[in-house]
Amino acid sequence: MTKRIAILISGRGSNMVALADAIQNGTIPNAEIAVVLSDQPDAKGLVVAQQRGIKTLAIPRLGRKREEHDREIVSVLRDERVDLICLAGYMRVLSPYFVDAFKDRILNIHPSLLPLFPGLDAQRQALEHGATESGCTVHYVDNTLDGGPIIAQRTVPVLPGDTVESLSARILEQEHILYPEAVASILARLEDK
Length: 193
Ligand code: GRF
Description:
Elements: E1 3-9, H1 14-24, E2 31-38, H2 44-51, E3 56-58, H3 66-79, E4 84-87, H4 96-101, E5 106-110, H5 122-128, E6 133-140, E7 150-157, H6 164-192
Parallel strand pairs: 1-2, 1-4, 2-3, 4-5
Antiparallel strand pairs: 5-6, 6-7
Helix pairs in contact: 1-6
Bound molecules: 5-O-phosphono-beta-D-ribofuranosylamine (GRF).
The site of 5-O-phosphono-beta-D-ribofuranosylamine has 15 residues, from α1, β5 and α6.
């Protein structure tokens, strides 16, 4: 059966595009994107997804409490019969309600070698700590900040003279390879169940 993926974004959406490409070219087999959902109505990635003919939805927080907002999102994801949720630059911490509603079915990509440098500005943190290598991590989302079980990682060197921008670009290139590979392996595991 074709697995239905929801991708949650808040901005640019380049990882969303990498996942969409991978579904299209068969790197992620037997899958489709059910919806690209954003908490930011003006997220650039929403336009990109629409241009590709993907269903999009913006659910802004509108001053609501985190769980109230998440309840609306969970209800949409249930209606869409989603098998897997991929956070891709989604800038909100999920409520325990959301995490429990899709237990072990939510993945995130983070631009560091977790458990190093969780949270915001991971690339800046790596530079400020004088790390000689960094990378990206795909992990399950649980109720910790970027602390769920690690699924896969890719490493890049930190080069002399690197800026946040140059390091971020080097890591992002690897994110676009890592996320599709990780999603394919997780879907294959779901298939076996
Ligand atoms: C990526 O660096 C990702 O690791 C982090 O947020 C960024 C999102 O970029 N969680 P994009 O929106 O996928 O281009």
